[in-house]
Amino acid sequence: MAELKVSVVSADSEVWSGLAKRVVARTTEGEIGILPDHEPILAILGAGEVRVTAVDGSVIKANAEDGFLSVENNSVTIVARNAELV
């Protein structure tokens, strides 16, 4: 099964990066789930939590607000003005 290369960054540092099975984030349009081979998308983040399920099954949670989420070629980039691990 394909994997996602995920990067969660704030304005001044990288909060988390690694390989994942799934990413769930809140956008201004509602919650979105990203799995491998998801179609390309660019979305504005809503206030809330980002949940990343790593390939080992662990769940990484981060608060991220005021930014965007980009998906392309199994690469997920979440850029937020404020982001921190929970």
From TrEMBL:
Coiled-coil blocks: none
Protein name (record): F-type H+-transporting ATPase subunit epsilon
Example GO molecular function: proton-transporting ATP synthase activity, rotational mechanism
Domain of life, per lineage: Bacteria
Family that this chain belongs to: Belongs to the ATPase epsilon chain family.
Subcellular location: Cell membrane
Bilayer-spanning residue ranges: none
InterPro entries per UniProt: ATP_synth_F1_dsu/esu, ATP_synth_F1_dsu/esu_N, ATPsynth_dsu/esu_N
Domain ATP synthase F1 complex delta/epsilon subunit N-terminal as annotated: residue spans: 4-83
Cross-referenced CDD domains: F1-ATPase_delta (cd12152)
Membrane topology: Peripheral membrane protein
Lineage: Bacteria, Bacillati, Actinomycetota, Actinomycetes, Micrococcales
Cellular component annotations (GO), alphabetically ordered: plasma membrane; proton-transporting ATP synthase complex
Coarse class of the protein's main subcellular location: membrane
Subunit structure: F-type ATPases have 2 components, CF(1) - the catalytic core - and CF(0) - the membrane proton channel. CF(1) has five subunits: alpha(3), beta(3), gamma(1), delta(1), epsilon(1). CF(0) has three main subunits: a, b and c.
Record's keyword terms, sorted: ATP synthesis, CF(1), Ion transport, Membrane, Transport
